[in-house]
Design goal:
Helix content: 25-40%
Largest sheet: 4 strands, mixed
Number of helices: 12
Bound molecules: shikimate-3-phosphate
Radius of gyration: 21 Å
Structural class: alpha/beta
Number of strands: 26
Strand order of the largest sheet: 24-25-1-26
Strand content: 25-35%
Length: about 425
């Protein structure tokens, strides 16, 4: 990766204008994978040309799928059908992408060949047992190393459907079981403890797969074929989140983000910020039938107040906590987040790394086993933040500079390219004083 190793962000500044962030990461991964096992060619527009989705594209190439680019964000996937993937010659490298590794585990478990999944140092530390457990119940043969990668899959073509009650709200686990269920005999049923993002279910339906929904249970009959389709990927709400919070802190008077995905399983941050006093106006856009909902978001500067976030609210804003904690640090009063244990097993331990960074900026806080307590302050100190290679931590602290008294230097930022290629240039154009060093 050629991206800068660190950023220096000047204190203060303001944001204005209109911008569009890159395509949704979750949806881009899924469009490639479902396009690969569909019959016919799938055209994807608005694709996220970031390192994580490129890992998925490269892995599919190693499985014999042809992927053609007709521009940075326009992709055609030549589907090989449900039985058309072929054995890879070498381990498949998922890079930094947890979604790729977990979804590929479900996709590859029922194949007629073996495959091994590996990743970068961060991904090699992340828990994989959560997908292996239900897949093993279906008859899959998968080996991990103390529950972590490498994931060694011994392809087992005759999986059996199960009814699985997820012990935690995880779209990655749900998706892995759904992908395996497509190739299993019988009806696979999955019940979630709380709603998690439903992009897989929506996209399977767009590819012609019949799914039944009843409360928090989704059911799918094995053996269904996917028909190629067109996928218009909206701008990623999780990337927009950095600019939503930035605009709450320092828009003069407002910042508009266009074509943002507003699937309700993703937009928990809007509810949290509104409860803090944010003025965010959502202007829905028309979309094709079956497509993900999108909107333009107009965000005004507002005085934020601290809030209490409950466990039930966590899954709907799971990836937004790094930047939410920055909003809390700039708010008046106290903010408490509990029931967020999952943040400890993301690209980094996001509770610990955020606590350390907030401490470096002089923010009063308490690190809890499953959350964080923060007392907001008028202004933040400057300082040096080690992002530990976590893209969302790096971008969150760039936003913090809007309220800092001195520059903030952010280390180890190359992985920002996994989810938000061009962040530095977009941030500068919006008004942040960010220099890549
Ligand atoms: C994702 C699901 C979430 C999220 C991740 C992307 C997905 O993970 O944190 O960034 O695309 O399915 P979990 O399923 O582990 O909650």
């Amino acid at each position: 990766m050629s991206a800068a190793a660190r950023w220096r962000v000047r204190p203060g500044g303001s944001l204005a204008g209109t911008l569009t962030v890159p395509g949704d990461k979750s949806i881009s991964h899924r469009a490639l994978m479902l396009g690969a096992i569909a019959e016919g060619d799938t055209r994807i527009t608005g694709f996220l040309n970031g390192e994580d989705c490129l890992s998925t594209a490269r892995a599919l190439g190693s499985l014999g799928v042809r992927i053609e680019w007709s521009g940075d964000t326009e992709v055609r996937v030549r589907g090989v059908g449900g039985h058309g993937l072929s054995a890879p010659a070498a381990p498949l490298d998922m890079g930094n992408a947890g979604t790729a590794m977990r979804l590929f585990t479900g996709l590859l478990a029922p194949q007629r060949f073996d495959a091994t999944l590996i990743g970068d140092a961060s991904l090699m530390r992340r828990p994989m047992q959560r997908v292996v457990v239900p897949l093993a119940m279906m008859g899959a043969q998968i080996r991990t190393h103390d529950g972590r990668p490498p994931v060694e899959i011994h392809g087992t073509p005759h999986l059996r459907a199960i009814h699985y009650s997820l012990p935690l709200a995880s779209a990655q686990v749900k998706s892995a079981v759904l992908l395996a269920g497509l190739a299993a005999a019988g009806r696979t049923r999955i019940t979630e403890p709380a709603p998690s993002r439903d992009h897989t279910e929506r996209m399977l339906a767009a590819f012609g797969v019949q799914l039944e929904h009843a409360g928090r249970t989704v059911t799918l009959e094995g053996g269904q074929r996917l028909r190629a389709t067109q996928v218009a990927v909206p701008a990623d709400f999780s990337s927009a989140a950095f600019f939503i919070v930035a605009a709450c802190l320092a828009a003069r008077p407002s910042l508009t983000l266009t074509n943002v995905g507003i699937n309700p399983t993703r937009t928990g941050l809007l509810s949290l910020l509104r409860r803090m006093g944010a003025d965010i106006r959502v202007r829905p856009r028309a979309t094709a039938a079956g497509a993900e909902p999108v909107a333009d978001l107009e965000v005004y500067q507002s005085a934020l107040r601290g809030i209490t976030v409950t466990e039930a609210e966590v899954p709907l804003s799971i990836d937004e906590f790094p930047v939410f904690f920055i909003a809390a640090a700039a708010a008046s009063g106290e903010t408490l987040v509990r029931g967020a244990l999952e943040l400890r097993v993301k690209e980094s331990d996001r509770l610990a790394v955020m606590a350390e960074g907030l401490g470096a900026l002089g923010v009063e806080h308490q690190l809890l086993p499953d959350g964080l307590w923060i007392r907001g302050a008028e202004g933040l100190n400057g300082g040096t933040i080690d992002s530990r290679g976590d893209h969302r931590i790096a971008m969150a602290f760039a936003v913090a500079a809007l309220r800092a008294r001195e520059p903030i230097e952010i280390l180890d930022v190359a992985n920002v390219a996994t989810s938000f290629p061009g962040f530095a240039a977009t941030a500068r154009a919006a008004g942040l004083g960010l220099d890549a060093l």
